[in-house]
Amino acid sequence: MDGEDGRNGTESLIAVAGLAVVRALHAHRASLRRREHDGVGLSEQERRRYAEALKAAIGQHAGGEPAEALRGYGALLQLSPNDPVALTNAAQIWIDHGVSLQDAARALDLATAATTDPGKRACVGIQRARLHLCFGRYSEAVAELSSSVTVLPDPGADPAPTAWYLLGTCLMEMGDEPGAQRAFRTVLAHRPLAVEAWIALARLVAESDRPAACKLLEHGQDFIAPPERAGPGAPPEEPGREQDGRPGGLAARQAGAGLLVEAALIMLEPPRDHEQARAFLDRAARLCPESPYPLVNHAGIDEELRDLAAFRRHMGEAVPKVRHTDRRLIAHMLNEAFTGEYGDITLAAMGECGLIDRAELRRRLEAWEHQRSTRERSTTVHHYYNGVVAGHGALVSGVRPAYSLNGGTAMTGDDIS
Q1: pLDDT tens string 237-276
Q2: Which phi and psi angles does 243 have, rounded to 5°?
Q3: Angle, helices 327-339/5-17, rounded to nearest 10 degrees
Q4: pTM
Q5: Fewest Cβ atoms nearer than 10 Å: which of 32, 94, 302, 330?
Q6: Which secondary-structure segment (H or E) carries 144?
């Protein structure tokens, strides 16, 4: 097994949980003529129960329980196989995790045929674009997204910011940097809390002007988590509570720190400026002492510089802060440990904190020892990580939904009627 073990386990659960959706897709392929998604044929009590079950599945989806949500969508589709909300959201989960993509395509085709509402069709189009992106079909994705942003009247209202963000990603991949920058700036003009958009725009700017890219990220951090409103002493964020239109508390500090970590990663691109990178990481750690990301990246610099004592200190402080549910960070650390000079220290710390069990720790330590002689003859390339997926990837670790354009629910029963 490698560092993707945890993710593969999640994908297996999602594939199993999606069987009810797949059965519905196969069993009711010709059911579009019945228009059951409008509730025709259901009693008032049945419609009420159906609405409650859909709300519960959407809540599980938004709450980070994709397997449970898929089971809920599957049960609903057995009753109403043309419900565009259940079809689109089930497809989104599959796309998020890179599994059952053919079934996702079939679900989105049915969802498109099942609704004539332009807004809902735009929601479906965004997921179709994400599916195209999974296969590198950028032209097809741009066509879907251009249609979606044209139909959606308010670029600041969901799901338009996601459509603009994905459009920017497509244009960036296709080499249209001015177009990509315009798309990302459109997002930030209406959704200035969107961490991925700040990062994606900064990465474009960094190709020609690294200091300007870092300034951009600092500006984003100042907006999201200004020290006077989101310092370590600030009260925890309460759902529904905002300050001047901005959520606050721990979530804001995590998001702001993520932007400072990204500034550090920009400075770690060749030619590396370790001193500037460490300065950004120190600022991120002061802003959000709870975050493991500044410390993990400090440890990466320590390993590059062969500073064993500093590596031991930083990794020892970082690992207890890692959430057991942050599978991407855990996978990153395991991958780095396998190839790293000080991998045994990382693995031991992860074992002490219960991020891997004893049997797995022993197996990985043996594999690390086995690779040691080969590793000593080669130059280790260290990879740094900020916890944010700034592209068309789906799930974002370390960033709360208020600050993210990825991983949210495709649509709800009330969306864009």
Answers
A1: 444 344 444 556 888 999 999 999 999 999 999 999 999 9
A2: -115, 115
A3: 140
A4: 0.83
A5: 32
A6: helix 138-151
